[in-house]
Amino acid sequence: MSDTKYQVFISSTYEDLKEERRAVEQTIIRAGDFPVGMEAFPAADEEQFSFIKSIIKQCDYYVLIISGRYGSLALDGKSYTQKEYEYAKEIGVPVLLMVREKREELPVNKAEANPENKEKLEKFIQDASTGRIRKGWETLDGLKLAVREALDHAKATKPRPGWVRGGQSTSAENLQMIISLREENDALKKKLEDTTPKILLPKNLAGLETKIKISGSHMVRTSSSRVRENFFFTISLGDVFSMIAPHLILPKIDSSVESIISALLVDHEYPDENSSAASIDDGVFQKIKIQLTALNLITVGAGETNGGGVELFWELTSLGKQEMFSRIAIVNKE
């Protein structure tokens, strides 16, 4: 696997493609890269769209998943999904297009009922398909394969800066800037924290060196079929934190974090197995969440999603970012 890691923006309508987005997230993680999507942002509006544009600008590739719905409309009558695509195209971020085949067979709740929006959707697909390779899909497995193939092809033909690990990095100035910004942010947050009631935690609270037992199941492909198998192994809480921390630089929805942790843990423990659909037991997931929260490395709080619902979101605290930098950031050796 290359030392260069890429940030990949996932764009689609939301409510009708939750499972598909989660599948694409896992595919990108398995490729060794970092997925970023609308789950990290509050409900769509013009102000939030300006923020999303700044995130797209930081990404190396842009995966656009189109199915049967056009999506929430902005003030100009275009869907936010189309506006995201047009911005990525405008600034030159390579677009990887995934279009659902046989859209006429979709159930009512996943199809566009408004005739005007249906026409906009078809025009959107036509525009997005012009001048680039378009991948079709019908199933989750088909979508994951299409995304992996498109991402591999894009890396080979449209190289992007990405993030470079180890001695290959020449970003000492960038690291220093990050640390300076972190220190400034920490100082501001400390003023707020000083006015916040303190929660008394046990003096013997277990730290990141603590080993935790991981249990769950995953699908394993054999020569003739796919079977779901249980797994059990032990890993330090610190290793779990190191895996998930880079994915929490932006807020991440609770169910998405569970999916990401499951995929990362199974890939770490069973790197040579043809595994998919990993899922750790809920009790294990809740234990990880509670322990990282108690150690003040993450916060978990309610927030509004793009679909108008309310979900739990994970985010690194200032201490969590500091811990992440100390574990992952590359520093020059004297």
Number of helices: 10
Highest-level CATH class of the largest domain: Alpha Beta
Rg for CA atoms? 21 Å
CATH topology of the largest domain: Rossmann fold
The proportion of residues in beta strands is 15-25%
CATH architecture of the largest domain: 3-Layer(aba) Sandwich
Low-confidence stretches: 167-172
Overall form: globular
Question: What secondary-structure arrangement, pairings included, does this model have?
Answer:
Elements: E1 4-5, E2 7-11, H1 18-30, E3 34-37, H2 46-58, E4 61-66, H3 80-91, E5 95-100, H4 115-129, E6 134-137, H5 140-157, E7 163-164, H6 172-194, E8 211-221, E9 226-236, H7 237-244, E10 252-253, H8 254-269, E11 275-280, H9 282-294, E12 298-304, E13 310-316, H10 318-328
Parallel strand pairs: 2-3, 2-4, 4-5, 5-6
Antiparallel strand pairs: 1-7, 8-9, 8-11, 10-13, 12-13
Describe the structure.
There is one protein chain. The protein is of the alpha/beta class. It folds into two domains: 161 residues, 3-Layer(aba) Sandwich (Rossmann fold), CATH 3.40.50; 157 residues, Orthogonal Bundle (Arc Repressor Mutant, subunit A). The protein contains ten helices and 13 strands. The strands form four sheets. The chain has a five-stranded parallel sheet with strand order 3-2-4-5-6, with helices on both faces. A three-stranded antiparallel sheet has the order 9-8-11. Strands 10-13-12 form a three-stranded antiparallel sheet. Strand 2, helix 1 and strand 3 form a beta-alpha-beta unit. Helix 1 packs parallel to helix 8, helix 2 runs parallel beside helix 3 and helix 6 packs antiparallel against helix 10. The longest helix has 23 residues.
